[in-house]
């Protein structure tokens, strides 16, 4: 493979480090640097720095990395219950639908809490939030109906 300017510079950096550490005498260092700048291939550069601690290019592994066994991987978190998400959405939606989504929020909230206890999924807080908002809306509508009946 033909050597690029960056490959030559890396080889000279390795030679410079070897000279600074006292691994090369000055005469040999100068000869190698001259040969590094004249090198045409990466192989020629590799021979210049082969006896030094670092090479001009990183070493590649001859074999691929083995996959990590599943026993050492972190356990994925449990999924979030879809009905709990629906309960919270319907509970929040009671403000925008004038309470028409309150009953679905309550029903979905109770169903979600039962499924969460049974399966161990996440989302109990969302289910409770949907239940609270749904029941508040139901109670609010009951109070509005009582006020209307009492005033009539």
Describe this structure in words.
The protein is mainly alpha-helical and 152 residues long. 62% of the residues lie in helices and 0% in strands. The chain contains six helices and no strands. It has helices at residues 5-20, 26-38, 42-49, 82-93, 102-119, 124-151. Helix 1 (5-20) packs antiparallel against helix 2 (26-38), helix 1 (5-20) runs parallel beside helix 3 and helix 4 runs parallel beside helix 6. The radius of gyration is 36 Å and the shape is rod-shaped. It starts with a helix and ends with a helix. The mean pLDDT is 88.
Number of distinct helices = 6
Percent helix, as a range, is: 55-70%
Report the sheet with the most strands, covering strand number, pairing sense and barrel closure.
none
Helix/strand structural class = mainly alpha
The total of beta strands comes to 0
Strand percentage lies at: under 5%
Q: Order of helices and strands, N to C?
A: HHHHHH
Q: Pick out the low-confidence regions.
A: none
Residue-averaged pLDDT: 88
So what's the overall shape? rod-shaped
What separation lies between the terminal Cα atoms? 96 Å
Q: What radius of gyration results from the CA coordinates?
A: 36 Å
Give the tags:
0% strand, mainly alpha, 152 residues
Question: What are the SSEs and their pairings?
Answer:
Layout: H1 5-20, H2 26-38, H3 42-49, H4 82-93, H5 102-119, H6 124-151
Helix pairs in contact: 1-2, 1-3, 4-5, 4-6, 5-6
């Amino acid at each position: 493979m033909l050597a690029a300017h960056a490959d030559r510079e890396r080889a000279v950096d390795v030679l410079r480090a070897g000279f600074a550490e006292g691994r090369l005498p000055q005469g040999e260092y100068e000869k190698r640097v001259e040969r590094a700048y004249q090198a045409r291939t990466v192989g020629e550069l590799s021979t210049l720095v082969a006896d030094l601690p670092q090479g001009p290019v990183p070493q590649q592994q001859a074999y691929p990395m083995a996959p990590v066994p599943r026993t050492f991987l972190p356990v994925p978190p449990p999924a979030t219950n879809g009905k709990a998400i629906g309960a919270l959405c319907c509970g929040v939606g009671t403000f925008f639908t004038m309470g028409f989504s309150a009953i679905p929020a309550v029903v979905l909230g109770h169903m979600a809490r039962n499924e969460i206890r049974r399966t161990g999924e996440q989302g109990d807080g969302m289910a409770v939030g949907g239940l609270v908002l749904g029941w508040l809306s139901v109670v609010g509508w009951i109070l509005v109906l009582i006020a209307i009946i009492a005033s009539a």
